[in-house]
Amino acid sequence: MASNMASCSGSQLTSTQPRLHGACILPGHILVNERFHGSEIVKVLQESHVTVQVDDCMGVIDFHPSSDVGVVYLTEADLVGGYNYKGKLLKFAKASFRRVILAEKTSLSSQYFYEVQKFIVIERGLVLLPVASPVEAGKILAQMVLLESKPQSNPYRIKMKPQPTDQAVLTTLQTVPGLGQRKAMALLSKFNSIEQISKASVASLATVVGNANAQQVKDFFQLKLHGNSRRSSVGV
Fold it and tell me: Residues in domain Fanconi anemia core complex-associated protein 24 pseudonuclease (predicted)?
């Protein structure tokens, strides 16, 4: 059931189109794609005192926790079953609002997760948050909704600055082995994006995190981008 608050422009979208200009969402509400009606995620949202509004015309968007944030959710079955999520995310990437992808990283899907991470974060420059279950996803979505009342402290609403400290980006970067929050923040401060970090030389990385961590970072991105763990020489 679509709501009259679902679209700012009132335009109708097909199931393959993203809402390029977002939706009009009231504070404390979340717009949910009809396919999640009655799901465990929705139950968690309701238990968190979030008002759930179901919409059958959301296109590729799965959740709108606020007017300027859209979320796509990739389940364990999507990743394990070979679901063609790339086409969906390419459409999602065209949207003008802040874009977040939640993806289930479980014992079954973990072997596929690095390919997902490479495509979403490195190739498309989107924000990826791994979750262990629909329950955790629901809690994250509820947090996004509740932070709507405090826009200045909401990392999902603040536009990316030249020196980003977006917690979602930090979370993604900290999947690099041996890289903690402090060093991840230092890298983002210097290189501005995960894409630039992945392209930086070992020598450049070493000026921020030291030689050992620099080599780990370089090896990590080489493995994910090129499918091998060949070590690069300092200064490459």
Answer: 27-145
What values do phi and psi take at 117, rounded to 5?
-60, -45
Q: In this structure, are residues 201 and 236 in contact, taking their beta carbons and an 8 Å threshold?
A: yes
Backbone φ and ψ of 230, nearest 5°:
-60, 130
Structure tokens at 104: 């289930």
Task: Judge whether 184 and 177 are in contact, CB under 8 Å.
Answer: no
Distance CA 67, CA 184 (A): 29
Which is it for strands 98-104 and 63-66: parallel, antiparallel or unpaired? unpaired
The pairing of beta strand 98-104 with beta strand 29-33: unpaired
**pLDDT tens-digit profile of 67-81?**
888 999 999 998 888
Helix (H) or strand (E) holding 72: strand 69-74
Gyration radius from the chain CA atoms:
19
pLDDT digits (tens, 9 = 90+) for 14-61: 334 444 445 678 889 999 999 999 999 999 999 999 999 999 888 899
Q: How does DSSP classify residue 4?
A: T
Q: CB neighbours (10 Å) of residue 218?
A: 26
The values of phi and psi at residue 169, to 5°, are -65, -40
Select from 198, 202, 197 the least CA-distant residue to 213.
202
Q: Position 70: which residue type?
A: G
Which amino acid is present at 187? L
| Contact indicator for 211, 232 with CB cutoff of 8 Å | no
Task: Specify the 3-state DSSP secondary structure of 29.
Answer: strand
Residue 61 in tokens: 């968007």
